[in-house]
Amino acid sequence: xxxxxxxxxxxxxxxxxxxxxxxxxxxxxxxxxxxxxxxxxxxxxxxxxxxxxxxxxxxxxxxxxxxxxxxxxxxxxxxxxxxxxxxxxxxxxxxxxxxxxxxxxxxxxxxxxxxxxxxxxxxxxxxxxxxxxxxxxxxxxxxxxxxxxxxxxxxxxxxxxxxxxxxxxxxxxxxxxxxxxxxxxxxxxxxxxxxxxxxxxxxxxxxxxxxxxxxxxxxxxxxxxxxxxxxxxxxxxxxxxxxxxxxxxxxxxxxxxxxxxxxxxxxxxxxxxxxxxxxxxxxxxxxxxxxxxxxxxxxxxxxxxxxxxxxxxxxxxxxxxxxxxxxxxxxxxxxxxxxxxxxxxxxxxxxxxxxxxxxxxxxxxxxxxxxxxxxxxxxxxxxxxxxxxxxxxxxxxxxxxxxxxxxxxxxxxxxxxxxxxxxxxxxxxxxxxxxxxxxxxxxxxxxxxxxxxxxxxxxxxxxxxxxxxxxxxxxxxxxxxxxxxxxxxxxxxxxxxxxxxxxxxxxxxxxxxxxxxxxxxxxxxxxxxxxxxxxxxxxxxxxxxxxxxxxxxxxxxxxxxxxxxxxxxxxxxxxxxxxxxxxxxxxxxxxxxxxxxxxxxxxxxxxxxxxxxxxxxxxxxxxxxxxxxxxxxxxxxxxxxxxxxxxxxxxxxxxxxxxxxxxxxxxxxxxxxxxxxxxxxxxxxxxxxxxxxxxxxxxxxxxxxxxxxxxxxxxxxxxxxxxxxxxxxxxxxxxxxxxxxxxxxxxxxxxxxxxxxxxxxxxxxxxxxxxxxxxxxxxxxxxxxxxxxxxxxxxxxxxxxxxxxxxxxxxxxxxxxxxxxxxxxxxxxxxxxxxxxxxxxxxxxxxxxxxxxxxxxxxxxxxxxxxxxxxxxxxxxxxxxxxxxxxxxxxxxxxxxxxxxxxxxxxxxxxxxxxxxxxxxxxxxxxxxxxxxxxxxxxxxxxxxxxxxxxxxxxxxxxxxxxxxxxxxxxxxxxxxxxxxxxxxxxxxxxxxxxxxxxxxxxxxxxxxxxxxxxxxxxxxxxxxxxx
Length: 1028
Description:
Layout: H1 3-6, H2 8-20, E1 24-25, H3 26-33, H4 37-49, E2 53-56, E3 70-73, H5 78-91, H6 97-104, H7 110-123, H8 129-148, H9 156-169, H10 178-182, H11 184-194, H12 201-215, H13 222-225, H14 228-232, H15 238-255, H16 258-266, H17 277-293, H18 297-313, H19 317-334, H20 337-350, H21 357-373, H22 377-393, H23 404-415, H24 426-434, H25 439-455, H26 460-474, H27 480-496, H28 500-514, H29 524-532, H30 551-565, H31 572-587, E4 591-597, E5 603-609, H32 613-616, H33 622-634, E6 638-640, E7 644-649, E8 657-662, H34 675-714, H35 730-740, E9 746-749, H36 756-767, E10 773-776, H37 786-791, E11 792-793, E12 805-806, H38 808-811, E13 816-819, H39 827-839, E14 841-842, E15 851-852, E16 856-861, H40 865-870, H41 876-882, E17 885-888, H42 899-913, H43 923-931, H44 937-951, H45 959-978, H46 982-997, H47 1001-1008, H48 1012-1022
Parallel strand pairs: 9-16, 9-17, 10-13, 13-16
Antiparallel strand pairs: 1-3, 2-3, 4-5, 4-8, 6-7, 7-8, 11-12, 14-15
Helix pairs in contact: 2-5, 2-6, 3-4, 3-8, 5-6, 6-7, 6-8, 7-8, 7-9, 8-9, 8-11, 9-11, 9-12, 11-12, 12-15, 15-16, 15-17, 16-17, 17-18, 18-19, 19-20, 19-21, 20-21, 21-22, 23-25, 24-25, 25-26, 25-27, 26-27, 27-28, 27-29, 30-31, 30-34, 31-34, 35-36, 39-41, 42-44, 44-45, 44-47, 46-47
C-alpha cells in the first residue's frame, strides 16, 4: 500500500471528493473529515502538487457563495481508491463519517450502501453537516450504481429500489438534497422495469410525485401515477401488502381524495422495520392534512401532536419543528388565532431561514394568513412581501406551497390592487395548481381564475362555466371550505344573471355544508371563515332523557351505526382498534387509548389512536398514567376533566377496562357530555369489549383443541424430543442463536435423520415468540385436503363442515410454522403455499374476509432445492421466499465426536421409558459405534438404542445386549457392501426381525423403526407372510 493510501487525512479528503462528485469547500471537507481547516488546507496543497486535486468552482454547494476556494478531484487510480477505503475502515472508528466513506468507497456493493444508510438514518436527527454530506455521497453512489447496472442488476434490482425509496424518504431532513434525490426516481423506475422488479415501479412513481411537490419540480406524467396503488395490489408479498395503505394513502392525498386518504391511514401497518418508518411520516402528514381539509380537526390535531411528541422523544428536533409548522395552519383554519400566533412566533425564532428555508417560508406564510384572518390584510401583505424580498436577497431558496388558503390570500391582495410579490404571483400560482393531479388544487385554481375573469369584465357565461368546472373538481374531495366558496360565488353569479332558482340551490348547498345559511352579501373572506371554523353540532348537553331526538341519542345512534358498519372481526385486536377509531371519530377527541387491567390493578396498554408507546412511556404521560391507575382502583364509572376523559368499562372482571381520550387544542369539549350520556357510552363500549373478550376466549379454546390434535399427530412416540447436543453442532447452534432472535425465514438443510425438527424447535425457543410451534408435513397430505387443513373453514363451508375449524396457518399466529421436507411438496401445493407465505394472509374456506397470521417460517429439506429448481420441480420464487437464512446441519458421520454423548443420552432416556437399568458402554463398543457411518444419522442411532433396550429380556441392560444389536448393524453394513438393491436389504431386515419376534407386529415395527401401517405396506409389497 502506498504512503498516500495509508494516510488517513489524505485518504479521507480524496474519498470525500470522489464520493461527493462535486467540488467541496475547505469548510465542508473539514466537517466531513473531522480535521481542522488549517490541516485540510495543508493536505489539499500536498495533493495538488501530486496532481490529485485542483481548485474548481463550487456549484450547488450548501456553503453558498462564501468566497472560500473549492476543490475537485482530478485523477485517481481504482486500486488506490480501494486501498484508501481499506485504510479508513481499519483506522477510523465505525461511529463516524470517515469510516462510512471507506465502506462506500472502492468497489462497494448495495449491501455496503445499506450499512451507510443505516448510519445516516440514526444520525440525521443531530443535524450534523458531515452526515448530510454523507447522505449526498449515498445519493451519488446510487446514481452511479444504477447507471452502471441498468441491464444486469438482476435480483439486486429490488434491493436497489428499496434503497432508493428509503433514501428519498429521508429528504425531509435536508431539502437542499431533495431535488438531487428526486433524480433517482426515473433511474430506479427504469432499472426495475428492465430487471423484473415491477412491484417497486408504482411505489417509485408515487413517491417521486410526492417529492416533486415539495421540491418545486414539475409533476410526473399522471397516466402512470393515477394507477400506482392499483398496480401494487397485483403483488401479494407481505411487505407489499404492508406498503399498500402507505403509498395508496399518499396517492389519494395527491389526487385530492381526502376521505380515502384517512381510510388508508386507518389501515396502516405497524412500524416494525427501519426501512419503512420514514414512509409513515409522509403518510401521517397526508392524513393530518386530509383530516384538516375535511374539517375533522380533532383527528388532524391528534395526528400532528402524536407525530410531534414522538419526534421530540426520539431527539428528532427538525421533524418536530416541521410538525409545528403543519399545526400552525390547522389552528388558523380552525379559527384558533391566539394559539396559532404562539406557534408561529416559535417557528420564526427557532430556525434560521438559511438552515431550513421550508420551515421559515411556512412560518412567514402562516403569519401573513394570521394577519389576514384577523382583519389586517395590509399587514399580511407587508409581512409576506418584506420577508420574501429579504430571503431572496440573502440567497435563501424559495419553498413552494400548495395550499388553497395561500392562493385565496394572494387573490385578495390582487383585488386590493397590491403589486405582485416575487415568488407569489397569482397567475403563476394558478398555472401551477392547474398542472397538479390534485382535484382540490385544480378546483381552487379554477374558482380564482373565474373570479379574476369576472373582475376583468369577462362574459358571465364563461365565469359560470368555470365555476361549474370548479365544483366538479371539488365535489370528490369533500373539502367544505373550497366547496362553500365556489357554491357561494356561483350563487352570486347566477343571481346577477337572473337565475334565482339555480342560485337558491347553490345557497342551499352552502347551508347544508356549514350548518346554517350564509348571508348573501357575505364577502369572500367572511365565507371562507364560515367554512373553516370549528363546530361540534352533536356534542352539546342532552336535554330531557325521555326526548327521543336529542343530540345525545343521535351520538349514541351514530356509534351504534358505526359498529354495525364495521366488518366482522376474526381477531380481538382488530375489534379493539375499531372500537377506538369509532370513539375518537364520534366523540371528536384528538387521541384515544384502550387499557385492560392487570391482576394487580394497573392499566395495561391494548390499542391507541394517535398515541404511541413511546409517548405512553415518557415522563410527560406519567401523571396521566397515575390518574388512570387511581380511576382503575377506585372503580369510578366515568371521570371527565377539562381536556381529558376516561370511561370505565365494566366487562364483568374484578377491574374495569379504561377508555381514555384527550384533546390538547379543543378545550372544554368533554364538558359538553352529560353524565347520563357518558354512562350510556360506557355501556355501549363495554359491550364491544366483551365481544372482543369472547372472541379471544373462543379463539384460545379452538387453538388449544387444534394444538392438542396437532401434537397428537406430530409428537414422536418417544415423547419429548431429546436435545441434539455435541461439539460437532457448535457452528450450527451459534448460527441458530443469531437468527433465532430475528423474524427472517430459515431453511434448515441436512440429510434425513440429522435432527432438523429439533433445530427448528431450538430456533422457536430462542425467538421467545408467544405463539405455538406448529409442525407441518404437507408432503404426506393429499392435495384435496390442503386448503381445509392449512386454511381452516367456516361452519357450512361444505358438506360435513358442522363447525368452524382453525387451520394450521392461523394456529401458528405469533409462533413458528415449521414445514418439514418442504422439497417434497407437489407443484400445485407450492403455488398455494407461496401465496400465503408472501403476505401471511389467507381466507378460511367459506369465509368472507382475509385473516392475518404473523407466523415465523422455518422450513427443512434433505434435497438440493437449487437442483430441483433447475430441473423444474420446485418454484424458484418459493425457494427465495423460504431460504433467506440457510442453516446446514452436518450428518453424523462428519461429527462422530458427538456419538458417545448421544448414545448415552438415548440409553438413559429409553431405559427410563422401558424400566431398565442401563450400564455404561465399554470403550470398545464406543469405538465400534464411531467406526460406523450411520447413513440414517441420529434417527438410525436412536432406533438402534431403542431396539436394543426393547428386546433385552433383563431388567439390567448389559454390554452384551448392545453388542447383539450392533451385530445387526454389521450385517446391514455387509449387506450394503454386497447387495445393491434397497428392496433386498429391506426384505432381509424384515425377515430377520420376523425370525426374532415371530408374529408380534408391534415389536417388528418398533425394531425396524416403522409404523404398523408402514410395516403392513411392506409385507404386502414384498409378499412376506409372518409365521402363525
